[in-house]
C-alpha cells in the first residue's frame, strides 16, 4: 500500500500517517480494523482551525 499511495519509502509513509492521524499505522489497524472500534467510524483528519 505504501508504494501504491505514492510514497517512496516505508518510513516516510509511516511518519506522514502518524502526523495525519495522530497514531502509527499499526495502532490504526489495531483500533479500526481488528474489531476494537464498535461504532463503525474511522478517525478523521484533525481540524487545523483548532491549532
Automatic annotation (TrEMBL):
What molecular function does GO assign, one term? Answer: DNA-binding transcription factor activity
Q: Which UniProt keywords apply?
A: Transcription, Transcription regulation
Comp. bias intervals (Polar residues): 42-51
Membrane-traversing stretches: none
PROSITE patterns with a match to the protein in the record: HTH_ARAC_FAMILY_2 (PS01124)
Question: InterPro entries in the record, alphabetically?
Answer: Homeodomain-like_sf, HTH_AraC
Q: Where is the stretch described as Disordered?
A: 32-51
On whether Cell cycle is a keyword of this UniProt record, the answer is no
Gene3D superfamilies in alphabetical order: Homeodomain-like
Q: Where is the HTH araC/xylS-type domain?
A: 1-31
Full protein name: HTH araC/xylS-type domain-containing protein
- Name the source organism: Barnesiella viscericola DSM 18177
The upper taxonomy is: Bacteria, Pseudomonadati, Bacteroidota, Bacteroidia, Bacteroidales
